[in-house]
Amino acid sequence: MKLDFKGLLGRMFAPLVVPIIRPIARTVTEALLRSFLKTEPSHAKVLLVSGYPIIDVELETLVEKTDTPIDDELVAGVKDAFEVVADEAGVELENLDND
Hints:
Helix content: over 70%
Radius of gyration: 15 Å
Number of helices: 3
Number of strands: 0
Mean pLDDT: 89
Low-confidence stretches: none
């Protein structure tokens, strides 16, 4: 089933879902990254450093072109998680798009 966010269902559904997408994405991503840091610290740090630019530049640019705020919030939640966990791990993330 494809959801049409421009139609009636989308106008009713999106406002209910949008506020919870970012916190859920952040919580789940933080848990996964922290677990990875515990089991494979060096690999997790590489993931943080190499994965962050993809989120910060590519995914943020991609979701800006879509009509629904749901994907914007999902990407923002994942980005938040990367930033929080990197800070906790003492990993510096490069801000390539200066936002």
